Amino acid sequence: MAVASKMIPLGTIAPEFELPDTISGQMINLYKIKSDIATVVMFLCNHCPYVVHIKDVLAKTAFEYQKKGLSFAAVSSNDIIKYPEDSPENMKHFAAEAGFTFPYLYDESQETARDYDAACTPDFYVFDREMKLVYRGQFDDARPGNSIPVTGSDLRKVLDALITGEPVSEQQKPSIGCSIKWK
After folding, report:
1. Are 179 and 119 in contact (CB under 8 A)?
2. What whole-number distance in Å separates Cα of residue 85 and Cα of residue 94?
3. Using CB atoms within 10 A as the burial measure, which of 33, 96, 115, 139 is most buried?
4. Distance CA 138, CA 153 (A)
5. Residue 126, φ and ψ in degrees, nearest 5
6. What is the rounded CA–CA span in Å between residue 118 and residue 120?
7. What is the mean pLDDT of residues 17-25?
8. pLDDT of 177 higher than 90
9. What is the DSSP letter of 13?
């Protein structure tokens, strides 16, 4: 069953975390990788059809905006006992297959997901240079089976506004996807 993101209040300061990156094997601290323009925190997982549907365009979008000075980090918080396909080893493979150029972090304790009030995968949070939340919601209107092309248009609008110093619209659509698989 699909669930929607919880839409935490705009202006919320990004909860700090330090999590293992399944790609590099290093510990990543959010505040050490933050951007002076915008930082995107995404909750993803390997098995969710909503994530699988956007992963290739997401990878290209992140790469494009990383070249413009923005930071990205993905977090998987799912219970790997019940969902072994979301294990760190499988996360590393998934990231390589998708072409992720950003850390794909494993939140074993699920504390980071709780701190962000994450509800689904994918779930996107964009923080400005002061690490204040300016966007929480969907990548775009594409969903598995709805025939809408995956473009990342909602996220792109926000990132472009932050790059040019324009205000970010408070009219934001929640993300829809698979629920976080809690322990």
Report:
1. yes
2. 10
3. 139
4. 9
5. -120, 130
6. 6
7. 98
8. yes
9. B
What is the residue extent of each domain of the chain? 2-179
Token pair listed for 111: 């504390």
Confidence of residue 50 (pLDDT cuts 50, 70, 90): very high
Q: How many CB atoms lie within 10 A of CB 163?
A: 14
Specify whether the CB–CB gap between 26 and 119 falls below 8 A: no
pLDDT at 81: 97
Largest CA distance in the chain: 44
Single-letter amino acid, residue 83:
Y
Nearest-angstrom CA–CA distance, 140 and 150: 7
| Token pair of 36 as six digits | 């002076």
Secondary structure letter of residue 146 according to DSSP: S
Taking the C-alpha atoms of residue 97 and residue 119, their distance in angstroms, rounded to an integer, is 25
**DSSP alpha helices (H): ranges in the chain?**
30-33, 49-66, 88-98, 111-116, 153-164
- Residue with the bigger pLDDT between 134 and 3: it is 134
SS3 85: helix
Question: Which pTM value belongs to this model?
Answer: 0.97
Confidence of residue 1 (pLDDT cuts 50, 70, 90): low
Fold of 2-179: Glutaredoxin (3.40.30)
